[in-house]
Each structure stands twice: as C-alpha cells, then as structure tokens.
C-alpha cells in the first residue's frame, strides 16, 4: 500500500509498504480521506520523536468488525483499558497508550490503518466525508467546555485564526457572548466574520487584562505570553498549542495575577459528530487545498504555507 512515512526528520512516500497487521482488538480500516494537522507539522520538526506513518485525522471504512462497510471516524488514543488510569475514566491519559500517527502507532496517511474497534464512531449519513474529516479537531474544541465551566457572559478571547482556532471559536461562540478571535490573517478572520463572530488583528489589540478566558490556538510559543497580556486577574488560559522544544518565559505574572492555566487536548467525538450532523459548525469553507495520497508530500508542504487553512488528502474512492 501507499503511505507517507516519517523517519527522523525525513518524510517520504512509500509505495509498497506492507498493510498494517491489526493488534488485538483492532480492525483494518480502508482510508477514504485524511486531514493534515498542525501536529503533523510539529512531528516533522521533532515533536514526540515519532517514526512511522503520519496522520491522525481520517474518515475510513472498516474491512471487518461490526462497522464493516460503513463510514467511520476514529479516536486517536489507543489505550490499554485495564490500568488504574483507564479504569478511573481517563483513557486518553493511559500511561501505556499509543496514539495514531503520533506515538508508537502508524497513522492514517496510508491506504489502510489498523484502529481499535473501540475507538471507531459511525459517521451520520447526513455528514459528508469532507466534513467528517474535521471530527477529531472539532472534538478537541469541544474538550474546552468539558473541562471548564463557562458562563454565558464570560468574555472569551481565542488566539489564533488557524484550523483549531476557528473550530474553538465556533464551539465557544455557541456558549459565550462576547467572544473575540484574534489572528494575523485577514482572509482567515473573514471566515469567522462571515459567521457573525467578532475578530481583531493581533497588532490592533490592547493588553487590557479583561478576558475571563483566553484560549491559545496559535501553535506558537508566543501564544502563552500574549494570553497573559489579555487574561484578567484570576482568569483562565486554555492551552491548545503543543510546541516542539522548550519554552522559556517569566512565570511571575501567573502567580501575581493568580491565573489558572488549563492544558486541553483530545475531546468527545460524539459531541463533534452531533454538531456536524446538526450543521451548527461550519467546516467546509476551511478546506484550502486537496491532494491525492500519491502527492502526500506536496500536501504537507501546502499545509505549512501561510494562508492555507485545511489541506485534505484523498486516499480511497468515495462512498
Ligand atoms: Zn490533529
Ligand atoms: Zn490504560
């Protein structure tokens, strides 16, 4: 099969890689569509030291198991489901977990991927395949209200107008008012303007320390220092950004202003699929470019270009 494989810091398209052998509890899924994500780009820069098939956002069709022949999306954390952490209801933090395309498990930029059956969710018929590719990052956005009590009147600022910033803004705009998205790209902010969400350019922003909640979706080590200029004393910063390497910054403002910092990662797939089926989140305008898997390297290059929001990879024939 074809696969986009990371070895060290080199990415290559393999044309005759062996099909994955499913581990216990896993089924082989034929990939229809995949999405390139900031995490893929960070992995290529050395984040997590991953080697193997890249990619974790996908829609596919299982070859076997109870969902065989139907479209599915898959949660990315492959947990043991037996350790104290898993039994306590925190499987996404299982210490022996593997993560599709990120930690010790081949990913989805390939014709086939093996995924634990338990991780799969059926895609509602009304959700088109291109939209369903956004389930994983949209679930990550829905993780914020799972972690934080948000009042209707909370002032929320989302930093970052990229893929995840857009999704977090749409999810939180359904809960809080006022909400402001701060970015650097007028064309990306325009997508949010069109949805009636207030936006501002980073350079126009006063360091006013007024926001109750600031969500960092910048994908940059400048996100947290910027968030500290915007959050109010005793406010909350939600970190969605994972940066390869070490971040250095003065921490005294966190203490002085008694700021709560919440790390936030993977979220509930069921809520994301419900929102896509209800049409309450707009994702298709985010698709900037698409490539066949045979041009997977060009897809990853395109995903790094400024101005590009979401790059999709067409893997298998649609259904
Ligand atoms: Zn991702
Ligand atoms: Zn476990």
Short key terms for the protein model shown above:
single chain; 319 residues; alpha/beta; 6-stranded parallel sheet; 5-stranded mixed sheet; globular; binds zinc ion
Outline the fold blueprint.
Blueprint: E1 3-7, E2 10-14, E3 26-35, H1 38-44, E4 52-53, E5 57-62, E6 72-74, E7 77-78, H2 84-87, E8 98-100, E9 104-105, E10 112-116, E11 120-122, H3 129-132, H4 135-147, E12 156-159, H5 163-173, E13 179-183, H6 186-193, E14 198-201, E15 211-216, H7 223-230, E16 231-239, H8 252-256, E17 260-263, H9 269-278, E18 287-292, H10 296-303, E19 310-314
Parallel strand pairs: 8-9, 12-13, 12-15, 13-14, 15-16, 16-17, 18-19
Antiparallel strand pairs: 1-2, 1-4, 3-5, 3-10, 3-19, 6-11, 7-8
This protein binds zinc ion (2 copies).
């Amino acid at each position: 099969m074809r696969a986009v494989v990371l070895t060290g810091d080199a990415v290559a398209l393999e044309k005759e890689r062996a099909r994955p052998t499913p581990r216990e509890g896993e089924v082989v899924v034929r990939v229809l569509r995949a999405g390139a994500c900031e995490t893929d780009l960070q992995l290529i820069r050395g984040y997590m030291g991953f080697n193997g098939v890249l990619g974790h956002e996908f829609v596919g069709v299982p070859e076997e198991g109870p969902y065989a022949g139907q479209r599915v999306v898959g949660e990315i954390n492959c947990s043991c489901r037996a350790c104290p952490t898993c039994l306590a209801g925190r499987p996404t933090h299982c210490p022996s977990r593997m993560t599709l395309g990120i930690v010790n498990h081949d990913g989805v930029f390939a014709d086939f991927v093996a995924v634990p059956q338990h991780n799969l969710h059926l895609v509602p018929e009304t959700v088109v395949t291109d939209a369903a590719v956004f389930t994983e990052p949209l679930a990550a956005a829905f993780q914020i209200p799972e972690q934080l009590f948000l009042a209707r009147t909370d002032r929320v600022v989302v930093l970052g107008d990229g893929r995840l910033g857009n999704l977090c803004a749409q999810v939180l705009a359904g809960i809080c008012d006022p909400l402001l998205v701060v970015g650097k790209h007028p064309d990306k902010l325009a997508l949010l303007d069109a949805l009636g969400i207030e936006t501002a350019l980073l350079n126009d922003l006063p360091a006013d320390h007024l926001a109750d909640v600031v969500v960092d979706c910048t994908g940059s080590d400048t996100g947290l220092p910027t968030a500290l200029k915007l959050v109010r004393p005793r406010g909350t910063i939600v970190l969605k950004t994972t940066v390869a390497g070490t971040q250095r910054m003065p921490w005294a403002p966190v203490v002085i202003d008694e700021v709560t910092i919440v790390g936030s990662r993977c979220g509930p797939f069921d809520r994301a699929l419900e929102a896509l089926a209800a049409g309450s989140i707009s994702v298709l305008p985010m698709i900037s470019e698409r490539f066949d898997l045979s041009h997977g390297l060009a897809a990853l290059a395109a995903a790094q270009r400024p101005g590009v929001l979401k790059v999709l990879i067409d893997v298998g024939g649609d259904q």
